[in-house]
Amino acid sequence: MSTNDQEAGRKPAWDSTIKEFLEEAGAAKPTPGGGSVAALVGALGAAMASMAANFTKGAKYADVADEVESVLARLREMSTMCEDLLEADIVSFERYMAAIRLAKDTDEQKAARRHAIEEASHEAVAIPLRLMEACAEALGIACELAPYANKNVISDLGIGAVLFEAAAESALLTVEINLAAMSPSERRDEYDRASREWMSRIAERKVAAVDAVRKRIRE
Fold first, then answer.
1. What's the confidence (pLDDT) of residue 153?
2. What was the pLDDT predicted at 6?
3. How far apart are CA 168 and CA 29, in angstroms?
4. Residues ≥6 apart with Cβ < 8 Å to 76
5. How would you write the chain as a 3-class SS string?
6. How far is it, in rounded angstroms, from Cα 209 to Cα 161?
């Protein structure tokens, strides 16, 4: 259990059962919210791509054995990152709410509160942006794997690609709602520009990955 989880006195959301997580996500409570769900979807994408890679082993695939092991290692990193980002999103939102609850009776308190909210907003944007970057990298992996992955599970690789894009699209909405709460600044513009660049790259790679999967299905 992380320090943040111990301080909050809660079990990490990642350790919940599927049923527990869904019930918490659907309840009238702020966490886990959209950012955490997006991270979970990214992890599911990594699981699907990993399954396709794990089926691409044995004598028949000896000539791509090194490539497969590299793919699996990178997908494990993706899954670990999603776990970290899921929990980070929850902690980030808790910090944002703590900033909202700060006193605002005096001008000094109001200024401190505004600063705390602004900093919490930046953190709330940085986390989903990291997920978008991870999804772009994972889609690149899917594109690499598609031409030689075991054809019997090639559709699952395509499902992984679709999930990576869905996770990124969901993360983008989290970015957008937090940007809307920020004061105009170069930093805000940079976040906006980065999110659009990542989504452009993600859309291209998702199309390439799914097209490669469908080509293999028709072979």
1. 97
2. 42
3. 23
4. 46, 50
5. CCHHHHHHCCCCHHHCCHHHHHHHHHCCCCCCCHHHHHHHHHHHHHHHHHHHHHCCCCHHHHHHHHHHHHHHHHHHHHHHHHHHHHHHHHHHHHHHHHHHCCCCCCHHHHHHHHHHHHHHHHHHHHHHHHHHHHHHHHHHHHHHHCCCCCHHHHHHHHHHHHHHHHHHHHHHHHHHHHHCCCCCCHHHHHHHHHHHHHHHHHHHHHHHHHHHHHHHHHC
6. 7
CB atoms within 10 A of CB 88: 23
pTM of the model: 0.89
Cα 177 to Cα 173: distance, rounded to the nearest angstrom: 6
